[in-house]
Design a protein that fits this description.
4 helices; mainly alpha
Protein backbone atom coordinates (compact mmCIF):
# COMPACT_ATOMS: atom_id res chain seq x y z
CA UNK A 1 0.00 0.00 0.00
CA UNK A 2 1.33 3.41 -0.88
CA UNK A 3 0.16 7.01 -0.64
CA UNK A 4 -1.89 6.81 -3.86
CA UNK A 5 -3.86 3.85 -2.43
CA UNK A 6 -4.69 5.87 0.67
CA UNK A 7 -5.72 8.87 -1.40
CA UNK A 8 -8.02 6.73 -3.60
CA UNK A 9 -9.54 5.19 -0.46
CA UNK A 10 -10.14 8.60 1.13
CA UNK A 11 -11.68 9.96 -2.08
CA UNK A 12 -14.28 7.22 -2.44
CA UNK A 13 -17.87 8.30 -2.83
CA UNK A 14 -18.77 7.49 0.77
CA UNK A 15 -22.37 8.69 0.45
CA UNK A 16 -22.94 6.33 -2.50
CA UNK A 17 -21.46 3.46 -0.47
CA UNK A 18 -23.71 4.30 2.47
CA UNK A 19 -26.71 4.30 0.14
CA UNK A 20 -25.74 0.91 -1.30
CA UNK A 21 -25.35 -0.46 2.21
CA UNK A 22 -28.78 0.84 3.26
CA UNK A 23 -30.35 -0.64 0.11
CA UNK A 24 -28.71 -3.99 0.86
CA UNK A 25 -30.20 -4.16 4.37
CA UNK A 26 -33.65 -3.18 3.13
CA UNK A 27 -33.56 -5.82 0.39
CA UNK A 28 -32.19 -8.43 2.81
CA UNK A 29 -35.06 -7.81 5.22
CA UNK A 30 -37.55 -8.01 2.33
CA UNK A 31 -36.03 -11.30 1.10
CA UNK A 32 -35.14 -13.05 4.32
CA UNK A 33 -37.10 -11.31 7.06
CA UNK A 34 -35.79 -9.74 10.25
CA UNK A 35 -34.40 -13.08 11.46
CA UNK A 36 -31.54 -12.94 8.98
CA UNK A 37 -30.45 -9.57 10.36
CA UNK A 38 -30.43 -11.06 13.85
CA UNK A 39 -28.25 -13.95 12.66
CA UNK A 40 -25.79 -11.50 11.08
CA UNK A 41 -25.75 -9.39 14.25
CA UNK A 42 -24.99 -12.50 16.30
CA UNK A 43 -22.11 -13.40 13.98
CA UNK A 44 -20.71 -9.88 14.44
CA UNK A 45 -21.02 -10.31 18.22
CA UNK A 46 -19.18 -13.63 18.06
CA UNK A 47 -16.45 -12.06 15.94
CA UNK A 48 -16.02 -9.23 18.45
CA UNK A 49 -15.74 -11.78 21.26
CA UNK A 50 -12.93 -13.58 19.42
CA UNK A 51 -10.94 -10.32 19.34
CA UNK A 52 -12.02 -9.06 22.78
CA UNK A 53 -13.14 -11.98 24.99
CA UNK A 54 -13.84 -9.63 27.92
CA UNK A 55 -16.28 -7.53 25.85
CA UNK A 56 -18.61 -6.09 26.89
CA UNK A 57 -17.19 -4.93 30.18
CA UNK A 58 -19.39 -3.97 33.12
CA UNK A 59 -18.75 -0.33 32.23
CA UNK A 60 -19.79 -0.98 28.61
CA UNK A 61 -22.99 -2.61 29.86
CA UNK A 62 -23.69 0.28 32.25
CA UNK A 63 -23.15 2.87 29.51
CA UNK A 64 -25.34 0.87 27.13
CA UNK A 65 -28.15 0.70 29.70
CA UNK A 66 -27.88 4.44 30.35
CA UNK A 67 -28.15 5.08 26.62
CA UNK A 68 -31.22 2.84 26.33
CA UNK A 69 -32.86 4.63 29.25
CA UNK A 70 -32.12 8.04 27.69
CA UNK A 71 -33.43 7.00 24.26
CA UNK A 72 -36.51 5.38 25.79
CA UNK A 73 -37.31 8.55 27.74
CA UNK A 74 -36.82 10.67 24.60
CA UNK A 75 -39.13 8.40 22.58
CA UNK A 76 -41.80 8.48 25.29
CA UNK A 77 -41.75 12.28 25.24
CA UNK A 78 -42.65 12.41 21.52
CA UNK A 79 -46.29 12.25 20.60
Amino acid sequence: MDASDLIRFAQRDWSALAELKADYWVSLKAREGAGEGLLIADELRRHALRWHPDWPSEEDRREDLETHIRVSAALRSVR
